[in-house]
## 1
Amino acid sequence: MQRNKAAVLGHPVAHSLSPVIHHYWLKAYGIAGEYAKIDSAPEEFSETIKRLQKEGYAGCNVTLPHKEAALALADEASDEARAIGAANCLLFKDGGVYAMNTDAYGFAQHLLASGVDEALLKGKKAMVLGAGGAAKAVIYALNQQFNMYIYLANRTRERAEALKSKQVETVGWEDKEAALKDCILLVNTTSLGMKGQEKLEISLQNLPQASVIYDIVYNPLETSLLVAGKQRGCRTIDGLGMLLHQAAPSFEAFFGKKPTVDKDLRAAVLEALKGRI
Ligand code: ATR
């Protein structure tokens, strides 16, 4: 029987939780597959991909700093990957490389799985903080799946300006609080609040209490933003679910089974995170 093989490539890669997620599902579904962790420096990245193709891997996930390089070397790419300008999953098929980006899917799925009604978001306004790779995925999901209008605030204004569109308006980092009054959703995609980083300083006074606050940071799980959101009476969602949900389409593509994100998976990943929090 052929054992399907996959891996995550990063540099560094030791911290990656992808093996925990994929091993959990392999075991849960009794699939005889393998999922490795491979450290590949940027200068070796394309050689590593060629080697994995030769060795019969089904594909691989890629994390920092390879997400843009992964898209660049692919023969074909999904609409999401092209729009976001980065890939987090490469599939090897028919001698070629197909790039996907499942971050937008992971974010949207997690919002819905957390009980946020699509109708609450459709056509409404959201505030997105940050303008890096994670912000691009979040904006793609909010624009495409929920037809939301976005206020985008980033410390470095030019990075936000680069993401401006019909559905994305930039606001100054200092003006972000004022725009909250129209928003049904606030998403932090910056690294502020993450262990070892400064906390995110923001007043939620203008944010309607019916709003949802999503922090993509998951280490710690409960950031000061989420604590303040709860105090305000808003619904709050931590970033761990995005990590779990973004892995599902990769697993299905590598191993042929659509997996479920359940409480036990979350517990397994939290266990692996222990000591890092
Ligand atoms: P990713 O691809 O994971 O989104 P990134 O591209 O490094 O990561 O983006 C990190 C985000 O956190 C950026 O929006 C960054 O703002 P800048 O574009 O101004 O760098 C934001 N960020 C990081 N540290 C910050 C800080 N101290 N204050 C405000 N924003 C910060």
Note: The mean pLDDT is 96.
## 2
Amino acid sequence: MNSLFIVFHVILLASSVHLTNAASYEYFKLALVWPTTFTRIHASGMTKPKIPQHFTIHGLWPTNFSLPWPANCANNQPKYHFDKSLMTATLQGHLAPDWPSLLPGQSNMDFWTAQWEKHGSCSAERFAQSEYFEKALFHRHNLDIDGELKKVGIIPDRIKTYSRSAIVNAIKKTKTLQVEPELVCFPDNGNALLWEIRVCFDADLVEIIQCPINKSKGVNLCKTKSNSIIIPV
Ligand code: 5GP
């Protein structure tokens, strides 16, 4: 009885150590950004030769159900720092159209480095660098958010507005998803510009899961008056 009790406590202690470890996480969030909105917010006045007209990847974030979220995990485990030599020409070629830097002054490589350092390093025990980037691309393609929205007539436009529920339902009823994504907006003259669509996955990056309600301060979850969301061109 006593030894069972000790074993039980050792297991409990081990799991709590794991949970408080900076590199532990509970699920993933794939953040897809609408480039025109991003450019208006972060790079107004600056013009990229061609702003992508499809959702691109902002990041793939290992996350916890409650705060704090893990970040910059290579600070404690230097072996997980970004390794540029792993970014083969093939991988870069695949990433460039779907995970580009949208900031005119920032190269794609700098953007990938920053995302890996802040986020990817925190799931490096499970997903090594190349696999992390490939998984993000795989899911971005598999979801085909652009195609699903188009199917129900939700098309980027300068002034046309859509309701949050129309966008959410378009995504929710797809075969791949069937759960509610997280929408992020930016206020604009009484309307809201759709900024990001975020989809959540289990810790193994296999199953899509319902994103928990985002309780972080300052994030605008597009819960504005109905029919007020613009997906700008
Ligand atoms: P925002 O607060 O504007 O949604 O996000 C700001 C930054 O916080 C993002 O660029 C991202 O790095 C981080 N972030 C936002 N939401 C999450 C989340 O759910 N999990 C993690 N790990 N980071 C997040």
Note: Residues 29, 59, 61, 63, 69, 118-119, 184, 216, 218-219 surround guanosine-5'-monophosphate (CB under 6 Å).
